[in-house]
Amino acid sequence: MTKRMGALLLTLLLTVSLALTACSSKQEPKEALKTAAANASKLTSYEMSSNFTINELSYKPADESQQDPTMTQFMSMLKDAQFNVTGVYQSEPMQTEMTVSLELKGDMGMTFTIPMVMTAEKLYVKVPSIPFFPIPETVVGKFLELDLKELAEQEGTEWNPDAMDTAKTQKLSNEVMDAVLSEYDQDKFFKNVDVKDAQLPEGVDAKQVVQFSVTNDNVSEAVKVMITKALPKAIDIVAKEEYRDMLQLNQTDIDQAKADLKSVAEDKEEMSRIDRINEVLTINNFNIDFALDKQDFPVYQKIAADLLITPVDTKDEVKLAFTGSNTYTKINEKAAFKINIPTGENVITMQEFEELMNSSYGY
């Protein structure tokens, strides 16, 4: 009896051990990203948070006497600018709500925050109070209702509900990502990053982190692969009838795009310039991290770039550094909307909005 119990316990321990190993095993970097892209189509709901920050933006002419004060002020305003989005999504019935904010620094610093809600056929945008742009107080704070079908008709285009089909959009995204990734050499462009070294935000529980990197050593190859292989394959995917109709592209546009790429790829002088791209571009850093959870869902992405551009003909210097991230939580849980679909007195139609704006200007 004791031996049989011991054998049973050993079998149970081995089974549990194998199951845990299967759940936590890491895939090869490219394969992991393909799996994550495929699993993204299984997302029926989630909460998301995105950020894009310009950490550095400056222009220094070779001849400092030609420094443009207006350009300097503009770049100063954009430096440290932040674009943030938080939101909730569910696929059935389709509903997305987002709060978009833009924060500008410097002497002309200001912040805009715009909540919005989207359903399969309508978009609601909360009218903000914008400095230097007077909007009637009776309008500020109300949600402007935009009927997407009516807007399409007004623009002389046919209403295309497929454009709002998130499942089809995700399928397109998966096919394009798979096609692009397959063209890049894994050993040169991809690697696994230890989770503890990935600087993941609090609350992100990742099993694996994959990093795609472009450096001064492989940037020329990266650009060539994109032009000669990745983009042509992506265009072929977009050219499929189901996607072409969804994106409202015609065959002429697609043929022109393919012809333009082919022209660049066959231009020896252009390819030679790409070989010498290091004369113009210095990459201090360009990494994209993808974090996968235990179910291989893509729960976090981060991009970090630090670039110096020095055109050969002018010797001017342009510095650009930025970071961006997307975080997904509460995946496939019941969506907890905070704004909800506006109704009643909180909603204003486009016609009402235009009438109130015109009357405020005395028209």
From TrEMBL:
Matching entries from PROSITE patterns are given as: PROKAR_LIPOPROTEIN
Keywords assigned by UniProt, alphabetized = Coiled coil, Signal
Extent of the signal sequence: 1-21
* Coiled-coil intervals, chain numbering: 240-274
**Is the keyword Coiled coil assigned to this protein?**
yes
Task: List the protein's name.
Answer: Lipoprotein
What is the native source organism of this protein? Paenibacillus illinoisensis
